[in-house]
Amino acid sequence: MEKFKNNPLVKKIGYNRVILIGVMLLIYVFFSVGSGRILGYADIMSALNYACFLGFLTLGVTFVIGTGGIDFSIGPVMFAAALIGGRLLTKNGCPVIVALLVCILVGTAFGIMNGFLVAYMELPSFISSMALMMLAKGVGSVFTSTQTIKWPQLTDENGLGWYRNLIRWDAGNGVTIPVGLILLLITAVICGIILNNTKAGRYILCLGSNKEAVRLSGVNVRIWQMLAYVLCGTLAGMAAIMYVGAYTTVQPGLGDTFNNEAIASCVMGGTSMSGGIASISGSIIGVFIVSLLQVGILAMGFQKDYQYVITGIIVILAVFADVRSRRRAN
Fold first, then answer.
1. Could you tell me the pLDDT band of residue 137, with boundaries at 50, 70 and 90?
2. H-type helices in 198-278, by residue range?
3. Which residues, other chains included, contact 2 with Cβ-Cβ below 8 Å and sequence gap of 6+?
4. Which of 20, 56, 187, 321 has the CB geometry, 3.0–4.6 Å to 285, for a possible disulfide?
5. Distance between CA 150 and CA 155 in Å, rounded?
6. What is the pLDDT of residues 245-294, one digit of tens each?
């Protein structure tokens, strides 16, 4: 094992990332054998559709968990943004580009509220995010009069469905370009640079390690703590665009399950629930694992509930490994 860990290629990629990639490949093989068929192109594209919006949620919550906080509102915020933007588009004649911008602005507004409550009002992030989760559900339901919103299809006669090309673009001759995946990876690179190569990222992680020490060193911790929640909200708004681009139909009062899946993806990827340690690349691999679980379980003919069971077990193992590693470090 030590020889494997010291392998130059493994060191360059990262031991944890190599293990995660190996787990993802094992899951693919398991579901291919269990379903009696190789998971093909359609299955992979379905998993990528799921990964696109879940990835943006996961990137956002990675910043928050890095500070030692938590955000249970991201799923409902994503749905509230999609509901409000969709209502303006389909009922009020708002241009598509404006509706998409509204989605991002709604997510950012919730991120600002959450960050203000945690950083300046000093509410526990658990309480703040739970309150905003209910608020997001209520706002989305009230704004749409509890009606389901259906965003335009690609074949819409008015040409309003062009936004769906942000997920998959049909280049013709049976070639489909996964634009959503490309956008997700570009965003992940930007988030990685922010987290690992900027002052903001260093302070965000330092807050998770020892907030009081950072404060005593003369840093205005409130600004950087709030920034993490604003980034999380903005990325939740972007996730709303990815979601409607893949599925079009949005129902009020939903979104809770996506909180758990995003947090699970973070934890799988090596982000510590105690804060101070976060991995953007690990979070993305965790997203692919969760998305593959979702597709593979359906391919085997099981209900989606089994995904929650397997994901829960993986999260428990990941948290246990994190706790063990911290104990060894101490």
1. very high
2. 199-216, 221-247, 256-268
3. none
4. 20
5. 14
6. 998 899 998 888 898 889 989 988 888 888 888 999 999 999 999 898 88
38, 72, 154, 230, 305 from 30: Cα distances, Å: 10, 31, 35, 39, 18
Residue count (the chain): 330
- In three-state secondary structure terms, 207 is helix
pTM of the model: 0.92
Cα gap 154→165, rounded to integer Å? 8
Residue with tokens 């469905």: 161
Q: At how many degrees (to 10) do helices 125-143 and 96-119 cross?
A: 150
Quick one: pLDDT band at residue 45, thresholds 50, 70, 90? confident
- CB distance 159 to 149 below 8 Å: no
Q: At which residue do the structure tokens 């009081």 appear?
A: 212
Per-residue HEC secondary structure of 80-124 comes to HHHHHHHHHHHCCCCCHHHHHHHHHHHHHHHHHHHHHHHHCCCCC
